[in-house]
Design a protein that fits this description.
Largest sheet: 6 strands, antiparallel
Number of helices: 3
Bound molecules: zinc ion
Number of strands: 9
Strand content: 25-35%
Order of helices and strands: HHHEEEEEEEEE
Strand order of the largest sheet: 3-4-8-7-6-5
Radius of gyration: 14 Å
Distance between the termini: 26 Å
């Protein structure tokens, strides 16, 4: 389980090795993504709180990156954070997310991006529930929910 100290270490020293890497030009991303997805994933924008697709959704399933389809979060780690954005306590795997210090907008935050395509997802904060104590605050525009079929 990742904790805040792990997130800080990843941001400060080096991120976990991604399972694969996808690199595209900004023009290619712009052609593939919707304008709203492009603004979040490639331009680090933040969508409006509450008026987004997954803020209030707690269906079981998995969330994948809309840029590259890599799995990022399991719905069982999603919780109601009253922030207005989908919130998770853990990534689906240790190397799903990459972390960086972000000092934009007069704030000191840790940015969370997809470790495969580099798409901006949101931020991580040290105010999540136990046992991890961390909160991944994620833009709905950057993720896509999928139901997991029972075998
Ligand atoms: Zn991705």
């Amino acid at each position: 389980m990742l904790r805040w100290v792990d997130v800080l270490k990843f941001a400060k020293y080096s991120n976990p090795e991604p399972p694969r890497l996808i690199e595209k030009t900004e023009a290619e991303w712009q052609a593939e993504l919707t304008p709203a997805q492009f603004r979040v994933l490639r331009q680090q924008h933040t969508e409006p709180p509450y008026r987004n697709a997954y803020c209030r959704s707690y269906e079981p399933g998995l969330y994948a990156c809309v840029g590259c389809s890599s799995l990022l979060f399991d719905a069982h780690t999603k919780y109601h954070a009253i922030s207005g954005w989908p919130s998770f306590t853990q990534p689906i795997t240790k190397n799903a997310i990459k972390y960086a210090f972000d000092e934009s907008n007069y704030m000191q935050r840790i940015e969370a991006s997809c470790n495969v395509c580099g798409g901006h997802l949101g931020h991580v904060f040290p105010d999540g529930p136990a046992p991890s104590g961390i909160r991944y605050c994620i833009n709905s525009e950057s993720i896509s929910w999928q139901r997991v079929m029972p075998f």
